[in-house]
């Protein structure tokens, strides 16, 4: 057994061993992706127990997500020498640790926790009580919730805080009422855990000391994404022994929008000036070609600390840049590649599909469901499927074909505004007969209101005989839902682009289901299954589907990066993107690329919702891009030339370093230099 343990440690390289054997005092490991930072944490925990006789329950290991905590604990359990009572090592997220402390010292109970759903309803009823008429406005409620969260996580003070996504005065009044509500009802929410824990520790020395005595060794993974409150609490607990061991990579810092601050990692060695600093130099995860490409990308960030590391694996193959027509075709091709691989004896779990925006998951959820491919959705329903806008569209469809007609009508009767007062709706809810007919004959309505109800009734009748996608176009256009959404976005100063994209996603999704009923059923199945798919499929043979944010720390044999086109990757909200946002986006892409062990595909659709899009500027920053990208042009491909219009490739010749295309355009045939066209974004 001793031999076994030694053999296992011998697998580690010199720097990893140094980190694993670090005993007391602060230590900072900064190193690139796949260099074994997380590995070092689990081994060090074992080493602390076996060699330094530290008690398992005195060790606290913190990671970023529940999934990561669970995974790390599993890895730890599999180490040789593991014994049952090592279960007492505390593996958790910041939240779970803060909850443990609050439960132990302040009597917090889970039943007093406001989960996200309850919080939503509390906020809604506060808005109503305050007399604002927008309490049914899902968008406003969500903005308030995310502003509150940002505020807590940066330890900001309400009086100094300036809300940006919603009227500041509204935000402040709702916030204050919400605080009162929690106080009088003895409730707390997720964000409170951080702040309450912090306040508890700075105000009660006795408790602080007993926590210090309890957690004598602290290890933190993904330290680049820590925020201010979290770090302050960790510092307090670690003091005065400062047995705080942190690992991270500033190039993978991707949570700044939530108040994370990679600067803290740099500050660490200033705060703890005796900290041992270790860098790991070997990447064990990916083939060299993938790492070389990822390095050439990230070296474009100006604001970074360069870390040199080399790969131990062989060269492998360059990232494969694949051109596809659009996002629907992308999902289909990815499904096909997965199915082919599984048919040849491979497994689903070798694959991850990584995308930048939540909306993109919709095409994959649809395609996987239709192709019967098991998948795990790391972001749950965070996509088109739980958006109120889809609920609106579905309500129209359901009302039309008579599924849950009354509730559906209540939802959309004033979307667009038909000026039907709330009391009229409420008085008719319980009545026998058709809800719309009852409202139409309601005495106090004026002619205009009555007419709009008859029009709605007529429209719903027409929808019944339409195909789903025709019906959706009709709702958007003829019924005026899209205009209503535009006005709404304008009134709320929300970027209308998001809503446009959502509606386009819904359109695309519906195209596979001609019958309205089938589409409604498809959505129902997805809503029912996605939530538990995460738990159910996590350890089974399934494809992983996730945003770049959720991909952190993970690794897969084969990775598909979806939608690498400018505007999506990097994601551009308005007309332009600032340098620091661009660097954030580049880090995200870097995280995504470095998840791949063996094969990395980067997909470049030519169109998005029937509009032309261009390859991501990041692709141009990858050393090997041109070589790979030009391989994706074949004879017979359709291309579009900025000046000559549509054409078909008739031939490709190699002349010295150049690739010459022969392209047949409508009026004549031209010979063109492919690299020049690509570098100057002349063709797609
Ligand atoms: P990331 O920055 O993406 O979180 P990381 O630095 O945490 O990466 P790990 O996940 O710990 O890296 O390790 C990457 C892979 O390399 C894992 O599969 C791990 O088992 C393997 N690995 C780490 N160290 C060694 C080693 N010394 N010998 C062989 N394999 C190793
Ligand atoms: Mg890691």
TrEMBL record:
It is an enzyme of class 5 (isomerase). It catalyses: ATP + H2O = ADP + phosphate + H(+); Couples ATP hydrolysis with the unwinding of duplex DNA by translocating in the 3'-5' direction. It comes from the Bacteria. One of its GO terms (molecular function) is ATP hydrolysis activity. Gene3D superfamilies: 1.10.10.160, P-loop containing nucleotide triphosphate hydrolases, PCRA, domain 4. ATP binds at residues 31-38. Residues 288-553 form the UvrD-like helicase C-terminal domain. Pfam families: UvrD-helicase, UvrD_C. InterPro entries: DExx_box_DNA_helicase_dom_sf (IPR013986), DNA_helicase_UvrD-like_C (IPR014017), DNA_helicase_UvrD/REP (IPR000212), P-loop_NTPase (IPR027417), UvrD-like_ATP-bd (IPR014016). Residues 10-287 form the UvrD-like helicase ATP-binding domain. The keyword ATP-binding applies. This is DNA 3'-5' helicase. It comes from Lutispora thermophila DSM 19022.
